[in-house]
Amino acid sequence: MQPVTVGIVIIGYFLVLIFISYLTSRNSSDEDFFTAGRQSPWFLVAFGMIGASLSGVTFISIPGEVGNSNFNYFQVVLGYLPGYLVIATVLMPLYYRLRLTSIYTFLEERFGFWSYKSGAFFFLLSRVIGSSFRLFLVAGVLQISFFDAFDLPFWVSVLVSILLIWIYTFRSGIKTVVWTDTLQTLFMIASVVISILFIKNELGWDTGELISQISSDERSTIFQWDWQSGRNFFKQFFAGAFIAIVMTGLDQDMMQKNLTIKTLRDAQKNVFWFCVILVGVNLLFLSLGLLLFQFSEIRGIPIPERTDYLFPGLAIGHFSTIGSIVFLLGITAAAYSSADSALTAMTTSFCVDFLGFKPENYKKNKRIRMLVHISFSALIFFVVLIFHAVNDQSVITAVFTAAGYTYGPLLGMFSFGMFTKLAVKDRWVPVVCLLSPLVSYLINLYSPVLFGGYKFGFEIIILNGLLTFLGLLMIRKNSD
């Protein structure tokens, strides 16, 4: 695909997003940046949240992972179902009853100042690392497909990406993101479907043959029953439930969209339908991954050592021009639908949780909010450049994996706050929240030795949350 074509596609894509921003920002109040006036249609939020939850990392990694672990990842996806049930029936009623803008204010009401700040801090840490990594990935694709042709350095690619996000989110924040995420989700799903149809037509299969080729391939095996494996069904299923709870229900980024919906009932419908769509979309990604491997094998195309590069390599080097454009739109949509909402959520959390913004002061503090928005954009820019400078995929992956540990303290704190009536010594909560991920990491590192060959998978987050819960129990206040 020619660099000029790439440039035209990217420019056209962002012009559409900026136009949506213009439409949504008209007659917007300063409060709309944080809550969208609590008037977002639930079905729009449900569809748009797919794009935010399936980032550019997911867009590339899930298809590539089929070659390493078959369809085992779908076990995690099945675990999302009970997780979202908990979100809809336990967490959402709590958030709506308290009319929260930042969900971490619950921790202040329940435990105190330091617990509140600890929860907000771990969210910000997770999102800065996670969003930077996702942007690093898509900036790399844009660099190869466009900026390298003009001998422009990597930092230009990153700067342009962040500036474009800032331009269409700085005025109306979450009010704009709700609509742009919907469009970006549409592009992302369309990209996967069109890629599947392209492979089907290139290999001369009809629909029946396509389904047969997927179902008969041993790589479409979903269930893994070996208890020592990190991909064991029960490990991944229960891990999926807790991942859904912490990375959606306890995440300001995802919950901020839900809280823009007017009523609890509609917000719960949003969660249920989002869950159903998410399961179907993940199955599409896995099916595409299997077809990519089959396409490569039939055409004699070498499989890259890092399977993450399989989809980009085939789309840019072996698909038709239309197929390449569709892939580019898909990965751009997946990456930016995650990054734009994360930037808005981090701005909201810092303004509300650390600067103490109140609804009655949103207009007065507008300039401060814009400064915070710019500051987080700059922070992500520099973190992405650090990832690029390290240029060691194993280190970067380890950093991204470590970000998952930061959700454990949130799981422990919210569980303790909701399911016990105990008070804690608030000043010691940050210590517990720091020690729990560290101890979890050490246990995970030595688990084969400690537990007779047992290896932790995604379920390490359960252990992390449990350790936080037990730590809070240890610093509880004695009842008089």
Please give a handful of descriptors for the protein shown.
480 residues; mainly alpha; 20 helices; globular
Structure description:
- With 480 residues, the protein is an all-alpha fold.
- It has 20 helices and no strands.
- α3 packs parallel to α13 and α7 crosses α8.
- It is globular and about 70 Å long.
- The model has no long low-confidence stretch (mean pLDDT 81).
Task: Give a quick precis of the structure.
With 480 residues, the chain is mainly α.
Helix segment count?
A: 20
Q: State the order of secondary-structure elements, H for helix, E for strand.
A: HHHHHHHHHHHHHHHHHHHH
Largest β sheet strand count, sense and barrel closure: none
- N-to-C span: 72 Å
Percentage beta strand: under 5%
The strand count comes to: 0
How much helicity do the residues have?
over 70%
Average pLDDT, all residues: 81
Low-confidence blocks of residues:
none
What general form does the structure show?
A: globular
Secondary-structure-derived class: mainly alpha
Radius of gyration based on Cα positions = 22 Å
Q: What is the topology?
A:
Layout lengths: L2 H23 L6 H4 L6 H12 L2 H14 L3 H26 L6 H6 L2 H33 L8 H16 L4 H29 L4 H10 L16 H17 L2 H7 L5 H36 L10 H8 L3 H34 L11 H25 L2 H13 L1 H13 L9 H22 L9 H15 L6
